[in-house]
Amino acid sequence: AQSVTQPDIHITVSEGASLELRCNYSYGATPYLFWYVQSPGQGLQLLLKYFSGDTLVQGIKGFEAEFKRSQSSFNLRKPSVHWSDAAEYFCAVGVEGNTGKLIFGQGTTLQVKP
Amino acid sequence: EPEVTQTPSHQVTQMGQEVILRCVPISNHLYFYWYRQILGQKVEFLVSFYNNEISEKSEIFDDQFSVERPDGSNFTLKIRSTKLEDSAMYFCASTLPGAGSEAFFGQGTRLTVV
After folding, report:
1. Which domain holds residue A76?
2. Cβ B45–A101 below 8 Å, yes or no?
3. Cross-chain Cβ contact B107/A36 below 8 Å
4. Would you list the domain boundaries of chain B?
5. pLDDT by residue for chain A (114 residues), tens digit each?
6. What angle is formed at CA B89 by the lines to CA A104 and CA A63, rounded to 5 degrees?
7. Which end of chain B is less congested by CB atoms within 10 angstroms, N or C?
8. For chain A, what is the domain count?
9. Mutating which of A9, A42, A44, A46 best tests the B interface, going by the most B Cβ atoms within 10 A?
10. What is the CA radius of gyration of chain A?
């Protein structure tokens, strides 16, 4: 069965420091991969997505993610974190079958220290 | 920018009561979804809806749940007899067809069952 694992439940980084949030997936075919961000009390906003082609994808707010098939990973990175990046981040895999259903990871809560 | 809208933003209901959560998907989208997020847990798929019928549902989506597209714009989730464990944030989403299509999420309805 398809699954997504985000090993880090909570991460704290200092403002200006680099960030990497880990995501591993289990899926038999080529996955469609997404990162969503959820600010407190808000809905889910798409940061970036990977469908095919270049394995390094750029997203909004200065985020990028790299798809590594050999490691079944899709880690999210940002070179310099801003205090406004504090939020919960969800990795998700899109399931084939044209339903567009997403399987989400547990989420990683990012705290940014001044 | 088109968006998915959900009403109400917060609903409190007594156990055993029926609730209807409402969503207006993006107008040219064809697939509609409900997801649930229990506090502190991952976002879970409930149901997908296409061409006026359920295309897929999770094991969570039992006989207490139903969905409907009563007119050309609204998409509703009904819980017939709410239980305490139904307390969660419910997200509506919509997409164009295709497993890789970006899902646009609404802001969510926080349902509290007392």
Report:
1. 3-113
2. yes
3. no
4. 5-113
5. 789 999 999 999 999 999 999 999 998 777 889 999 998 878 899 999 998 888 999 999 999 999 999 999 999 999 999 999 999 999 999 876 656 789 999 999 999 999
6. 45
7. N
8. 1
9. A44
10. 14
